[in-house]
């Protein structure tokens, strides 16, 4: 049962062939069995989950209407607030923070009767590409325990890949959903900026962050998007765009659909194995009648510096509230107020987070604002315009998600710049605020390869259409041996 | 060398909206500590601000009342600094794009009407409040997220008196528009001043100091007087003025250094990424314009034109919205505007000032004041008696006719009765008659006083004068 899809579980529950309680218990068993090796979970809410499953069963038994995700075990990245549970962002500074409120996505999941089964590991404050920056533990790639699951939503990707839960939520600021999805062989979707409310997501970089799902297939992805998307009055950047039923986009004829391959995304730095598998998927697209052509996105090469300036600037400000005064970690000994701030933050934050706070503080300081922050905003504008022009030519853009398959622990950890290159194909999408998915299309050296499909604003449906067609043809059915 | 002061003000006014600027919590003053709070105004991880439309309405209203341009596309910015009662360690405010800019206020100075220019009005959030008990410190976040406007003037004021007059006028305008309740003792209206001096006639600006958080008109005036004097003395002694922030110590009567420029902050302003642009269209502005109340300047002009009030009376009565309303209700009850104004400018304001009361505290009605004036004009009571009746009205709220009736204060206009009193007083004061005849006119006044006293003030003064004149000639 562990490797069934959420939509299959849903059918079984409705047909009463299985109870929610049984499903949840089996997930918990699976977690007990494998999570010691993978370390995806920071906490499992065993009792709560079983309680909630029982009440879903009761509803089904009484013939009451249940939500679209009723009885399905899932888990959330530890930067999404869940009432009366800890939300730590895998950091020391928030190790004892209990959220007094639910994030909007959590409220929606609860309303759809999904069973939130636990909190998932991540890079501290979502900064990283390997989940090696968690202050708590390192999550392992289920395909190879010597390798990283990607990041920062490594726990979210690994838990789904390992059959612990049927889906999970992560957050994507520069590729933090798509890159770990690619490295773990699952589907990871980053919706259009504003499509999913950020209310209750502990902010890393407000103008780039977006919550999205990890699932095992495209249909599940559509199902979860149906639940979490939509305008939220608690988030002023939330988009007032109708949410269609995304499952209606699945299994459609994609004949004549125009697909662009940006040559810059297939160039230097992309592993041969990755390129090979992605190109196979592209060939499959041609067979289905898609019009594939090469395009050029030359501005994309500036995405990484723009990303690091903008995201670090916002992070330096967003993380200022963690000062040891009101909640979270406070240094034991301090001289005065400033010393209290300095010590609490010096001890409470990990080195990657501190590196970015320093970078962001520098970029925003009055002497350098124009040279860095303002300049980055201008280049952001150019990147957006370049994508807009591209989408006049093509309907969708396809590329590798990650330049390489999952790498070994420590391989890039000592060289931040090398690590930052992991997100080279995903970052431009966040800069522009576009929707994109990563889906598994093959294996290279026994490790999953992800394909990225980028769509125009609010064209999640079109992306799902193409993804479901590719899914059928490539028939990725690898499972981790764990 | 003669010096002149150059003064600019920065005024913070709390808006009277019912809910906070970025969430639905109440803005009510007081309340048990930390009870008017939610994740947003506590700046909890994950919470996001959503701009309250009413805040924009209020700020636009203030902008219109202060003759500003309303900027149609603006954005909120973050001002980053660490402070224990700032829950996010940044304040959401406006930086490069204030909602309103380039306005002015007209102030009646000794040299005539003067325009004080307003550089900008922007909207922002208030912080919480630190409470200290012994060694421990606590924070109350009830005020966190209360909406403010900051009004920044150009350095157009040249004396502490001018600054005070401007501040008073500004407060009156904010009260008229009901944008803020302007309760200075509750901190809902606060004033910072930038002040420098320069040789009279010079065009250059001197080095300025900033005086923080003055919360009364008197404090503003006194602090500026002290600071200007201090700067002049310093320059005369060959010292240099340093740019610094000072505060006004009421008890010592002096300004004291808080921090010098070396410690100045780099606030690292940048556009608030949790919010979209604030776009205000013409309809929005027109809608607010069409609902503007009559403002003090318009009212003043109308009083002068329609009621023939002197400039001075009109200025004083319109300075307070409530006083103006009282005046207008009295006029509406058929009183003579000038007589009403005389009474308001005289007895009413004097009594209110003596008792430190507001016009809204009085027990009697504007119509009662009109009736009192009528009683005098009809000759039922004298002006002297009227003042006594007024004091009674003020105390009890009773109608003037009732007081006159109950206390038997009706004026004596019976010639015979008055003539009797006159003769009795003359009989008792032969020396005064002698003095009068010897040309001492003062004696006449004394006799009138005695007659009024004997009649308990009720004798008609005109008759007293006439009959005294007649009787004294007979002797």
UniProtKB/TrEMBL annotation, chain A:
EC supergroup of this enzyme: ligase
GO molecular function: ATP binding; glutaminyl-tRNA synthase (glutamine-hydrolyzing) activity; transferase activity
Annotated SUPFAM superfamilies: Amidase signature (AS) enzymes
A Pfam short name: Amidase
A GO term from the CC aspect: glutamyl-tRNA(Gln) amidotransferase complex
Domain annotation Amidase: ranges: 22-464
The entry's keywords: ATP-binding, Ligase, Nucleotide-binding, Protein biosynthesis, Transferase
One BP annotation, GO: translation
Superkingdom in the source lineage: Bacteria
Entry-linked InterPro entries: Amidase, Amidase_CS, Amidase_dom, AS_sf, GatA
Residues at the catalytic site: 77, 152, 176
Record's catalysed reaction(s): L-glutamyl-tRNA(Gln) + L-glutamine + ATP + H2O = L-glutaminyl-tRNA(Gln) + L-glutamate + ADP + phosphate + H(+)
The UniProt record lists the keyword Nucleotide-binding: yes
Family to which the UniProt record says this protein belongs: Belongs to the amidase family. GatA subfamily.
HAMAP family to which the protein is assigned, alphabetical: GatA
Protein name, entry field: Glutamyl-tRNA(Gln) amidotransferase subunit A
The gene coding this protein: gatA
Automatic annotation (TrEMBL), chain B:
Domain Asn/Gln amidotransferase: residue ranges: 325-472
Any one Pfam family match given in the protein's UniProt record, by short name: GatB_Yqey
EC number: 6.3.5.-
Known catalytic reactions: L-aspartyl-tRNA(Asn) + L-glutamine + ATP + H2O = L-asparaginyl-tRNA(Asn) + L-glutamate + ADP + phosphate + 2 H(+); L-glutamyl-tRNA(Gln) + L-glutamine + ATP + H2O = L-glutaminyl-tRNA(Gln) + L-glutamate + ADP + phosphate + H(+)
Keyword Nucleotide-binding tagged: yes
Enzyme class (EC, first level): ligase
SUPFAM superfamilies named in the record: GatB/YqeY motif, Glutamine synthetase/guanido kinase
Keyword Nucleotide-binding: yes
InterPro entries the record matches: Asn/Gln-tRNA_amidoTrfase_suB/E, Asn/Gln-tRNA_Trfase_suB/E_cat, Asn/Gln_amidotransferase, Asn/Gln_tRNA_amidoTrase-B-like, GatB, GatB_C_1, GatB_Yqey_C_2, Gln-tRNA_amidoTrfase_suB_CS
Listed HAMAP family: GatB (MF_00121)
Quaternary structure and partners: Heterotrimer of A, B and C subunits.
Cited function: Allows the formation of correctly charged Asn-tRNA(Asn) or Gln-tRNA(Gln) through the transamidation of misacylated Asp-tRNA(Asn) or Glu-tRNA(Gln) in organisms which lack either or both of asparaginyl-tRNA or glutaminyl-tRNA synthetases. The reaction takes place in the presence of glutamine and ATP through an activated phospho-Asp-tRNA(Asn) or phospho-Glu-tRNA(Gln).
PANTHER family from the UniProt entry: GLUTAMYL-TRNA GLN AMIDOTRANSFERASE SUBUNIT B MITOCHONDRIAL AND PROKARYOTIC PET112-RELATED, GLUTAMYL-TRNA(GLN) AMIDOTRANSFERASE SUBUNIT B, MITOCHONDRIAL
Family: Belongs to the GatB/GatE family. GatB subfamily.
Name of the protein this chain belongs to: Aspartyl/glutamyl-tRNA(Asn/Gln) amidotransferase subunit B
Organism listed in the record: Caloramator mitchellensis
GN (gene name): gatB
């Amino acid at each position: 049962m562990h490797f069934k899809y959420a939509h299959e579980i849903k059918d079984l529950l409705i047909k009463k062939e299985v109870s929610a309680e049984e499903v949840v218990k089996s997930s918990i068993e699976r977690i007990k069995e494998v999570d010691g090796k993978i370390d995806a979970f920071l906490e499992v809410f065993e009792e709560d989950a079983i309680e909630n499953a029982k009440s879903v069963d009761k509803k089904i038994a009484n013939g009451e209407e249940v939500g679209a995700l009723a009885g399905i075990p899932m888990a959330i990245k530890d930067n999404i607030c869940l009432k009366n549970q800890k939300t730590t962002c895998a950091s020391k500074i928030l190790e004892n923070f209990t959220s007094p409120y639910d994030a909007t996505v959590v409220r929606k999941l609860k309303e759809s009767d999904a069973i939130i089964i636990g909190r998932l590991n991540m890079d501290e404050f979502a900064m990283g590409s390997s989940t090696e920056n968690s202050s708590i533990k390192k999550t392992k790639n289920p395909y190879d325990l010597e390798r990283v699951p990607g990041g920062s939503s490594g726990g979210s990707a690994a838990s789904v890949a390992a059959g612990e839960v049927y889906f999970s939520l992560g957050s994507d600021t520069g590729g933090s959903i798509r890159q770990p999805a690619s490295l773990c062989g699952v589907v990871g979707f980053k919706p259009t900026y504003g499509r999913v409310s950020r209310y209750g997501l502990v902010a890393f970089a407000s103008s780039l962050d977006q919550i999205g799902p990890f699932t095992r297939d495209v249909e599940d992805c559509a199902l979860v998007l149906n639940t979490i998307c939509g305008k939220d009055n608690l988030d002023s950047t939330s988009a007032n765009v109708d949410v269609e039923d995304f499952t209606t986009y699945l299994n459609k004829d994609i004949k004549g659909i125009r697909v662009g391959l940006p040559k810059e995304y297939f160039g230097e730095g992309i592993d041969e194995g990755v390129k090979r598998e992605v190109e196979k998927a592209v060939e499959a697209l041609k067979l289905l009648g898609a019009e594939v052509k090469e395009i050029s996105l030359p501005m994309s090469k500036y995405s990484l510096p723009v990303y690091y300036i903008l995201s670090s600037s916002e992070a330096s400000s967003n993380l200022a509230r963690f000062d040891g005064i009101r909640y979270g970690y406070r240094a034991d000994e301090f001289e005065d107020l400033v010393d209290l701030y300095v010590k609490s933050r010096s001890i409470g934050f990990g080195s990657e987070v501190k590196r970015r706070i320093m970078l962001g503080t520098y970029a925003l300081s009055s002497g350098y604002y124009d040279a860095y922050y303002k300049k980055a905003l201008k280049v952001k504008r150019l990147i957006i315009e370049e994508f807009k022009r591209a989408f006049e030519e093509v309907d969708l853009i396809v590329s590798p998600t990650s330049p390489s398959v999952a790498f070994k622990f420590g391989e890039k950890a000592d060289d931040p710049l090398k690590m930052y290159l992991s997100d080279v194909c995903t970052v431009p999408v966040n800069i522009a605020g576009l929707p994109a998915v990563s889906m598994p299309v093959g294996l290279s050296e026994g490790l999953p390869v992800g394909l990225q499909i980028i769509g125009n604003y609010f064209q999640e449906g079109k992306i799902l259409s193409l993804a479901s067609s590719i899914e059928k043809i490539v028939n990725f059915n690898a499972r981790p041996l764990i | 060398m003669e010096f002149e002061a150059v003064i600019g003000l920065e005024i913070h006014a709390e808006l009277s909206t019912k809910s906070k600027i970025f969430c639905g919590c109440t803005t009510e003053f007081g309340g048990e500590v930390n009870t008017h709070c939610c994740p947003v105004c506590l700046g909890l991880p994950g919470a996001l601000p959503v701009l309250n439309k009413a805040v924009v309405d209020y700020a636009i209203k203030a902008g219109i009342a202060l003759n500003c341009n309303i900027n149609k596309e603006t954005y909120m910015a973050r001002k980053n600094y660490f402070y224990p009662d700032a829950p996010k360690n940044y304040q959401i405010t406006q930086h490069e794009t204030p909602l309103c800019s380039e306005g002015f206020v007209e102030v009646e100075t000794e040299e005539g009407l003067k325009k004080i220019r307003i550089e900008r009005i922007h909207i922002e959030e208030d912080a919480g409040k630190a409470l200290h008990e012994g060694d421990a410190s606590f924070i109350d976040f009830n005020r966190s997220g209360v909406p403010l406007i900051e009004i920044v003037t150009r350095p157009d004021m040249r004396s502490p008196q001018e600054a005070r007059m401007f501040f008073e006028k500004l407060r009156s305008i904010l009260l008229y528009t009901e944008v803020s309740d302007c309760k200075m003792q509750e901190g809902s209206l606060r004033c910072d001043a930038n002040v420098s001096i320069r040789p009279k006639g010079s065009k250059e600006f001197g080095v300025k100091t900033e005086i923080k958080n003055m919360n009364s008109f008197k404090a503003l005036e006194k602090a500026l007087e002290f600071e200007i004097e201090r700067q002049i003395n310093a320059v005369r002694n060959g010292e240099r003025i340093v740019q610094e922030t000072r505060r006004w110590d009421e008890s010592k009567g002096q300004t004291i250094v808080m921090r010098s420029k070396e410690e100045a902050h780099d606030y690292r302003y940048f556009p608030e990424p949790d919010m979209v642009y604030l776009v205000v269209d013409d309809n929005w502005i027109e809608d607010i314009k069409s609902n503007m109340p009559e403002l003090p300047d318009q009212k003043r002009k109308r009083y002068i034109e329609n009621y023939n009030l002197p400039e001075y009376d009109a200025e004083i009565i319109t300075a307070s919205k409530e006083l103006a309303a009282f005046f207008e209700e009295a006029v509406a009850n058929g009183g003579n505007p000038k007589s009403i104004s005389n009474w308001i400018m005289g007895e009413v304001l004097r009594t209110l000032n003596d008792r430190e009361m507001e016009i809204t505290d009085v027990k009697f009605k504007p119509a009662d004041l009109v009736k009192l004036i009528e009683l005098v004009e009809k000759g039922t009571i004298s002006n002297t008696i009227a003042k006594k009746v007024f004091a009674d009205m003020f105390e009890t709220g009773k109608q003037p006719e009732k007081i006159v009736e109950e206390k038997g204060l009706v004026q004596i206009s019976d010639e015979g009765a008055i003539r009797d009193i006159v003769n009795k007083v003359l009989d008792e004061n032969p020396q005064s008659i002698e003095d009068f005849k010897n040309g001492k006119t003062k004696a006449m006044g004394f006799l009138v006083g005695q007659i009024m006293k004997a009649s308990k003030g009720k004798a008609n003064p005109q008759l007293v004068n006439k009959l005294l004149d007649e009787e004294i000639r007979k002797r």
